[in-house]
Design brief:
With 470 residues, the protein is α/β, with parallel strands linked by helices. The protein folds into two domains: 288 residues, TIM Barrel, CATH 3.20.20.70; 58 residues. The chain is 47% helix and 9% strand. The chain contains 20 helices and nine strands. Strands 1, 2, 3, 4, 5, 6, 7, 8 and 9 form a nine-stranded parallel β-sheet that branches. The longest helix is centred in the N-terminal third of the chain and has 19 residues. It is globular. It binds S-adenosylmethionine. S-adenosylmethionine binds next to loops.
Length: 470
Amino acid sequence: MYDPRSMAADDFIDDGEIRETLEWASANKDNRALIESILDKAELRKGLSHREASVLLECTIPDLNERIYKLANEIKNDFYGNRIVMFAPLYLSNYCVNGCVYCPYHAKNKHIPRRKLTQGEIAAEVEALQDIGHKRLAIEAGEDPVNNPIEYILESIKTIYSVKHRNGAIRRVNVNIAATTVENYRALKEAGIGTYILFQETYNKESYLKLHPTGPKHDYDYHTEAMDRAMEGGIDDVGLGVLFGLELYRYEFAGILMHAEHLEAVHGVGPHTISVPRVKRADDINPDDFDNGIDDETFLKIIACIRIAVPYTGMIISTRESKSVRERALHLGISQISGGSKTSVGGYAEDEEEDTSQFEVSDQRPLDEVVRWLIDMGYTPSFCTACYREGRTGDRFMALCKSQQIQNCCLPNALMTLKEYLIDYASPETKEKGDAMIAREIETIPNDKVREIVRERIGLIEKGERDFRF
Ligand code: SAM
């Protein structure tokens, strides 16, 4: 029975509730009065329920769809300004005991070489990432208790934080590893991780069981309840996601919002981020084998509707998507993107001889080009990692976001970290454009005192100081 406060996956992601939601949304897809009333509520910027948001996703009335896109853009600007946070994935190991049918790392795939980085190789990857300019990583690993035990992940995090190469430093490590125990989540928290990210892949239990036929990931309940264990272990920034293409997107959309509602109801804080990956071609994987692929228009509408439904949740898009799709998605609510990514084990430091990549990357531009492209569109690339280092996680971050004080805090941090990037890593063209942007953006900091401090600190960064933050 549907109960967002229950700790049982079958209750907070209740199949009956999702099916009723979809029926109701479909029956009302051209109900102008209802859709307008939902949009009026959304204008208050306090979010929508999964039922309300599902009606917006279904809406077939052109002028109301325009209103949805416009509102998504406005909400993004209100809560996140024009900043886009930058990150890169770091693949540690592709050893995996699971049988996920969409993933090339599945245990039965004998074509790909299996590889796990040594601590020395991790340090080399981190130096290469620092040389590009990254400050924030998401580490990725297959699930393999023998090859990639939690001790290996913890040691790797320590290595990553310890590498100080030239002016570089990785200041935030987010972690995307398989569902684990409260004890292990506690250890990850103690290791100083930022967000714990785990994609649900699909919220449809029946499909989930078929798509994950073997290995520990087959356990739908254990996987779906992972975020509750992470929170019990003290991690209060968690990142949700589904892999679009596996199941009906409407089902996933309602499911992910119900998951967010559950976290809010039980822990008092919703997800820190939502990711929106789509299945990609990979070794042994043909995305056409999955029946539920979504076109770009549907994909963009999902992004806009998530933005409206959970205004305080960051939204992440990776290099799985092309430059043009990413460009459109940025206007509809994305707040975090990867750039210059390699999805293979050892891909940053080495010329790839053996291909261990997890999936094909659509946006292959180097980070400098991505940064310049953002600036050209009027977005401020941010290498900020301040919040969790200042203890602003979970509900403390949400409070900051809700009060819209982010302009006096996040914008300054974005400008100062962009300045570091421009001096240490940017091409002359990017530097020129970035400096002009910083000069413009400083003027928009609302608080006089903060504005003055930022000016002063930008001067100190030019003289060689680093790592200022509010
Ligand atoms: N092994 C961990 C787990 O099972 O949760 C996480 C790491 S895995 C490297 C990260 C994510 O990549 C998965 O959660 C899945 O959504 C995504 N992924 C797997 N195969 C993919 C494909 N063919 N195309 C796009 N994304 C894929």
